[in-house]
Amino acid sequence: MQGKQFFDNHGRPIEYVRLAVTDRCNLRCFYCMPEEGIRYLPKKELLTYEEMLRLVGIMAGFGVKKVRLTGGEPFVRKDLMYFIKKLNEIPGIEGIHITTNGVLTLPHIEEFKAAGIKSVNLSMDTLDRERFHSITRRDELPAVMETFHALLDQGIETKINVVVMDGQNTDDIVPLAMLAKAHKVDVRFIEEMPFNGEGSHYPVLVWTHAKIHQELVRAFPSLSRRVDEAASTSATYGIDGFKGSVGIIAAFTRSFCGTCNRIRMTAQGTLKTCLYDDGVLDLRALLRNGANDAEISAALLKAFGQRAKNGFEAEARRAKGHAVSESMSTIGG
């Protein structure tokens, strides 16, 4: 049963959960993990679909209405479409959203609308095949482009996620933005973060949101700010003559924390109330030690009531020796 909307200790509503269904990925993007990959969790350490459904049902009871499935790569996990259909049946959940690299997605796209999938964020950092191979350490750009066009053909709301990396793909900013000229898509440029299994690649972040904006203005003088939703992480811009839009996400600068309405749940059941914390609640332990729904709700609400004000406070609270360096694949994108 859906209850009243819950607000955290800073007056922000909790209404959006990013749920990692796996820590495994079929790519090896250098900004996400080392070339040799990471130590994947044994299957028994991952939440089962049944456990995830129970937790999302509890969260829907106090106002969570949006679920985004992440990974790793979500489509690496078996029977994902079955799980999505079951998620969509939970009272209070208004739609399912997915972040995917697009390599394994194509065979399932015709099922998306019927399953309740409202939108897809497609990770695509370059349109150049050689650079794609260099960044992801896999030659899969043709498969990703097939997925891109199939999503548009099916009328699925699509956003392109581009991590901007100094010395890697800055020449791709303009070509990727041009996708929004012919297609109704939102191409979003994201500051690189140190969640790569190694730590920051640079002593100072060169391609900040301000520099990305400067590059877009240089190429597109008609760039103009649009009104975003209250909790949007992206600053969205229109360009004259474009069907779609472009956006900039200040993921490292963390300028949008004041309106953040999202929490994260890792594939092993760790609750993160901020991307930059190191986990605030072990939900898997509660589930497997027999906690009832009321006990789990109380634990969740206590965690939400102690939420960091912003990503900098969350990072400062991390346990000693737990510097931000874990792979994005382990924390749900």
From TrEMBL:
Radical SAM core domain segment(s): 9-240
CDD domains in UniProt: Radical_SAM (cd01335), Twitch_MoaA (cd21117)
Cofactor: [4Fe-4S] cluster
Keyword Ligase: no
NCBIfam families tied to this protein: moaA
Name by which UniProt lists this protein: GTP 3',8-cyclase
GO MF terms held by the record: GTP 3',8'-cyclase activity
UniProt-listed Enzyme Commission number(s): 4.1.99.22
Keyword terms of this UniProt record: 4Fe-4S, GTP-binding, Iron, Iron-sulfur, Lyase, Metal-binding, Molybdenum cofactor biosynthesis, Nucleotide-binding, S-adenosyl-L-methionine
Entry-linked SMART domains: Elp3
Keyword Acetylation belongs to the record: no
Pfam family, one: Radical_SAM
Residues annotated as signal peptide: none
Gene transcribed to yield this protein: moaA
Enzyme class: lyase
Catalytic activity: GTP + AH2 + S-adenosyl-L-methionine = (8S)-3',8-cyclo-7,8-dihydroguanosine 5'-triphosphate + 5'-deoxyadenosine + L-methionine + A + H(+)
SUPFAM superfamilies: Radical SAM enzymes
